[in-house]
Amino acid sequence: MTRLQTKYQDRIVKDPEIMVGKPVVKGTRIPVELVLQHLEENPDLEDLFAAFPRLTMEDVKACLAYARAVVTGARRPRARAK
After folding, report:
1. Which helix (H) or strand (E) covers residue 59, if one does?
2. Which fold has domain 3-72?
3. Interval 22-41: pLDDT, tens
4. How would you class 15 by CB atoms within 10 Å of its CB: exposed for 0-12, middle for 13-18, buried for 19 or more?
5. pTM for this structure?
6. I need a labelling partner for 7 at 20 to 30 A (CA). Which of 1, 19, 64, 76 fits?
């Protein structure tokens, strides 16, 4: 397991029954994609947290680490076993 994976794997999950299997912040229905899109359009964290009150700074860091892992070809989180 790489150091990069440990930065996100406890917070980013993929479950076919949640958001059609898109990677989401654990315990929410907030897709990583939506967090990244919001940051792309407006990198103000206060605005992000106002839009998604359940997010924490650690969640945001996990979303960024996940995006980096995807871009660099690191393994993605596996779908949860049922």
Report:
1. helix 57-72
2. Arc Repressor Mutant, subunit A (1.10.10)
3. 999 999 999 999 999 999 99
4. middle
5. 0.81
6. 19
